[in-house]
From TrEMBL:
UniProt name for this protein: Fibronectin type III domain-containing protein
Phylogenetic placement of the source organism: Bacteria, Bacillati, Actinomycetota, Actinomycetes, Mycobacteriales
A biological-process GO annotation: polysaccharide catabolic process
Organism expressing this protein natively: Gordonia amicalis
Segments passing through the bilayer: 25-45
Residue ranges, annotated region (Disordered): 1-20
InterPro entries linked to this entry: FN3_dom, FN3_sf, Ig-like_fold
Length: 278
C-alpha cells in the first residue's frame, strides 16, 4: 500500500543579506578628496620642477656724459645680477651693480636694455631706452681713462692739463706688422695717442703695449742710444736728441703704458714728465 507523501513544515522565511547603502553625500566627499589630492600633487610637482623668473628691471636711465655713458636702473628683489645690452646684442655689463659705465660706446644713436639674473635664469628685458652719444676713443676709451687729468677723454675735447689736444695713431707700426722688411706680422703696440700741450711747444704721447714683454722690448731698443734717468713715477731713458721714454713702475694698473716726451727749446724733458698729472 502506497505511503502518503508528506510536505516538510515550512521554516522561517530567508532573505538575502542587506547591501550597504551608498548615500549621495558620500560620493561627493570622495570626488572632492580626489580633486584635492590631484591639485595638491600638481602644485607639489610644480614647486619641485618650475623655475622662478625674475621680474624685468624698471627705471632704466641713460646719461651720455663726456666720453662715456652711465646707465642706472632699479634693483629687482631676488635678482642675483643684471645684464646690460647695447644695440643688437652687445653685452656691456654682467654683474651685480645697478649703475654701469659704458666707456667704449661709439658716437651715434644707441639703444640699451637691461635684464635681471637669478643664477642662469634671465628675466624679460626692460623697455629699451635710446640715447645719442658724442665722439669717444671707442674700445680704447678705458685706456685713455687711466689718465683723466693728462689726456682728453674724448678726441674732440682738450685735456685739463695744458689744454692738450690729442689724436690717435694706428697701433701697429711698420716694424711690427709690415710692410717693411723688418715687419714681423705681430702687433706690439696696442694703442697710441699723440698730444700737444700748450700749443706745439710741449709734445708728448702715451703708448700702450700688448704685454709687459712688448713694453720692455721697446724700452730696451731705446736704451741703446739713451741714458737712464729717474722720474717721480718710475724709470726712463733720454736719448741724444732729447726724446725721452718713461715707464710707470709705481702703479701696476698702468704698467703697460709708456710716456714719450719730446724735448723742445721751451721745455726740458725731465721737468715736463715730472710735471704731468699721472
Amino acid at each position: 500500500m502506497a505511503q502518503p507523501v508528506t510536505t516538510p513544515p515550512a521554516g522561517p522565511p530567508t532573505t538575502p543579506p542587506n547591501s550597504p547603502t551608498v548615500r549621495p553625500w558620500t560620493i561627493a566627499a570622495i570626488v572632492v578628496a580626489a580633486v584635492l589630492l590631484a591639485v595638491g600633487s600638481f602644485f607639489s610637482v610644480r614647486a619641485l620642477t618650475s623655475v622662478d623668473v625674475p621680474d624685468a628691471p624698471t627705471g632704466l636711465k641713460l646719461d651720455a656724459g663726456t666720453g662715456r655713458l652711465v646707465a642706472t636702473w632699479d634693483a629687482v628683489p631676488g635678482a642675483t645680477g643684471y645684464q646690460l645690452v647695447r644695440d643688437d646684442g652687445i653685452v656691456v655689463y654682467r654683474g651685480t651693480e645697478t649703475e654701469v659705465v659704458d666707456a667704449s660706446v661709439p658716437a651715434g644713436e644707441h639703444t640699451y636694455r637691461v635684464a635681471a639674473l637669478d643664477g642662469d635664469t634671465v628675466s624679460p628685458p626692460s623697455p629699451s631706452q635710446s640715447v645719442r652719444t658724442g665722439a669717444t676713443w671707442g674700445v680704447f676709451a678705458p685706456l685713455v681713462a687711466q689718465f683723466p687729468e693728462l689726456l682728453p677723454q674724448t678726441p674732440d675735447t682738450a685735456a685739463r692739463w695744458g689744454n692738450a689736444e690729442c689724436v690717435r695713431r694706428y697701433a701697429g707700426g711698420r716694424d711690427e706688422v709690415g710692410p717693411s722688411e723688418t715687419g714681423n706680422g705681430k702687433v706690439r703696440t696696442v694703442f697710441v695717442v699723440r698730444c700737444a700741450a700748450g700749443a706745439v711747444d710741449r709734445p708728448f704721447g702715451v703708448f700702450w703695449f700688448a704685454s709687459k714683454d712688448a713694453l720692455n722690448a721697446e724700452y730696451s731698443r731705446s736704451s741703446a742710444t739713451s741714458r737712464p734717468v729717474r722720474w717721480k713715477h718710475g724709470t726712463g731713458l733720454i736719448d741724444e736728441n732729447g726724446r725721452g721714454v718713461f715707464k710707470i713702475t709705481d702703479d701696476p694698473a698702468r704698467e703697460l703704458a709708456m710716456i714719450v716726451v719730446l724735448e723742445t727749446p721751451a721745455q726740458n724733458v725731465l721737468q715736463m714728465v715730472d710735471s704731468m698729472p699721472i
